[in-house]
Design brief:
mainly alpha; 3 domains
């Protein structure tokens, strides 16, 4: 086990470079079990000591030279992948050493980056290293901010973002650091951390559009760091004593509190949300998922309302039928049918399983969607957030729930696992919450979503819950057993779209489709917030809409029944309609039993 340490200790300042390189390579290639913890610790410290001597210019006493810096730091990184090695790196002295090496070897990008990777790995494995790194004696926090601000290379932005993300994971230990980041401008820096993040998001959006290496990874870790700031700073900025004295049950949850110092992060987040190109095969992958996570922490405050909903305040709101696609062609709806109905999609499109394939259904006349770089949206292009979210939700549901598949079908869970996701709840709930956030905050957004999901010309000749479109998938999710969080979030989204009016919701989709959701929500009486929207009672062709199923009531041949059977069925209907009326889901003038009694048609 100690042969690696013996081979390295046998080196000297006069050793030939190939011999040094061979020993370092053997350490790098060794299996973890080949180096015991004690040897691992000694090797890490010895190599770091030699690198320090080399970096100080006193190379005669070191086994290493500047040319050996990259393979030596690579060996340290590999040794540090085990906790025993990272424990040595996690000391304030060695973190300072690696930080100094990342600067002294600035002309050797590979060596400099390896030094930063050693720091990041130690912070990942050893929790106290995160606190040590941002202490004043190490100065790693300021160094990471400076690195983030000055870097234009995606790999360097990734490393700076990873270190800052790990430095801010714990609010308790990093509160002072987070406060300083947001509230002050570091010496020599033109802006605070929010402005720096905004610049880097725009830069990385362009890099992702041109498929620059590591640009997606860099944005993902930058967004993780951003999420920590959005999650922690509002709590830190509030009365700290009030927060510390609050019980766990009283503690504010994510998005419940906000601070206007963070307002500047919303525009660049929305620009990146608009600019990211489609991903394959899954429509929801990092960094898009991390943008959504950050967005759901930001409330629609009066100062942020225009930025969130700018398209709803500038002329006629666009819709999936009339807008120009951010991907290059003028689309209809992601589930538009060949006959022109805005919500009924052909079954042949259900096989599309990727974002760029599913979104091709947006093209008018079924034209092919161009994914060329020249048609990618610019980060500075106007952002219709609601429309973008609607499109993404539509194609995501189409991807995971193709055709009219039951959400509880085993194939749905298998697809999630194959794409590296634990379950459908984790993938889709944040996106549904984002839709609900916008609809809850703005009446115009509710009206637009209602027009897209529940249009006046909705085809009601077949069961709504069986439709191969967004509406059908949402209704099937309301009956799901396996996806409980997504089921609840989808119900809340439909409820908000219908102006928080249970009667309106039931009138649009049929009480049978939402009875379970309304029961669990505890809605048993007339809603206190009646909607201004018209309640659909007949189709555009004048056919009455069944209040239970939500589909058109067609004349059917009378079923032969005995008088006793007819009486039993009549009692069932009487009880059912009475229950609907009492719950507020059915207006008295819509109750056919009451109308028949008033008209004297009941014997």
């Amino acid at each position: 086990m100690s042969n690696f340490l013996g081979a390295y200790s046998a080196l000297s300042s006069s050793s030939l470079r190939p011999e040094v390189a061979s020993v370092l390579q053997s350490i790098t290639d060794a299996y973890p079990s080949q180096i015991d913890p004690g040897t691992r610790k000694t090797l890490v410290q010895t190599i770091l000591d030699d690198l320090t001597k080399c970096g100080s210019g006193n190379g005669k006493k070191s086994r290493l030279t500047a040319k050996d810096a990259f393979p030596a730091l690579l060996a340290v990184k590999i040794l540090g992948k085990e906790p025993a090695g990272s424990e040595v790196i996690a000391t304030s002295a060695n973190l300072s050493t690696l930080l100094a090496l990342s600067r002294s070897f600035k002309d050797d990008a590979d060596a400099s980056n390896e030094a930063l990777r050693c720091i990041a790995n130690a912070m990942l494995l050893i929790s106290y290293a995160r606190d040590t790194y941002i202490r004043s004696d190490v100065g790693g926090g300021d160094a990471a901010v400076e690195l983030l601000e000055k870097s234009t290379n995606a790999e360097r932005i990734f490393l700076a973002s990873r270190i800052l993300f790990l430095s801010t994971v714990s609010m308790a230990s990093s509160a002072n650091f987070i406060r300083a980041l947001v509230e002050t401008k570091p010496p020599g820096h033109p802006g605070n951390i929010i402005e720096i993040i905004g610049v880097k998001l725009d830069c990385l959006s362009r890099s992702i559009q041109t498929s620059t290496k590591l640009s997606r990874e860099a944005m993902t870790d930058l967004l993780k760091f951003t999420f920590n700031l959005l999650l922690h700073y509002p709590k830190i900025a509030n009365d700290s004593e009030e927060i510390m004295n609050r019980s766990e049950d009283e503690a504010k949850i994510m998005g419940d509190c906000w601070n206007e110092r963070l307002d500047g992060i919303l525009p660049p987040l929305l620009r990146s949300f608009n600019a990211l190109p489609p991903s394959f095969p899954s429509p929801l992958v990092p960094p898009m998922t991390h943008i959504i996570h950050s967005l759901i922490t930001i409330p629609v405050t009066p100062s942020l309302h225009p930025k969130w909903l700018q398209s709803s305040r500038s002329g006629t709101p666009r819709s999936p039928k009339s807008r120009e696609s951010p991907f290059g062609s003028p689309p209809q709806s992601a589930s538009a049918s060949a006959s022109g109905s805005p919500t009924l999609g052909p079954s042949k499109d259900a096989k599309y399983s990727a974002f760029d394939r599913a979104i091709s259904k947006l093209s008018a006349g079924r034209r092919s969607l161009s994914l060329s770089r020249s048609t990618s949206p610019s980060p500075s292009a106007p952002v219709d957030v609601l429309l973008r979210v609607y499109d993404l939700l539509d194609v995501s549901l189409s991807h995971y729930l193709p055709g009219s598949i039951d959400p509880d079908d085993m194939r749905v869970r298998e697809k999630c696992r194959a794409e590296g996701n634990a379950n459908l709840d984790d993938v889709l709930v944040p996106l549904v919450l984002l839709v609900n956030k916008l609809c809850t905050a703005d009446e115009g957004s509710r009206a637009r979503m209602r027009e897209w999901v529940l249009p006046p010309d909705l085809d009601r000749t077949t069961p709504l819950e069986g439709r191969p479109d967004l509406l059908g998938r949402c209704l099937r999710l309301l009956a799901s057993v396996h996806h409980t969080r997504l089921k609840s979030a989808t119900g809340e989204m439909l409820y908000s779209i219908c102006d928080f009016d249970a009667s309106l919701l039931a009138s649009y989709v049929g009480y049978g489709n939402v009875a379970g959701f309304l029961f669990h929500k505890g809605i048993t009486g007339q809603p206190s917030r009646p909607s201004n929207a018209p309640v659909p009672q007949i189709t555009q062709t004048g056919v009455p809409i069944n209040p239970i199923t939500g589909i058109a009531e067609e004349d059917r041949p009378e079923i032969e029944m005995t008088d006793e059977e007819k009486e039993r069925e009549a009692e069932k209907l009487f009880v059912l309609f009475d229950r609907l009326e009492r719950s507020g889901a059915l207006q008295p003038n819509q109750n056919p039993i009451r109308r028949a009694a008033q008209e004297g048609r009941l014997g």
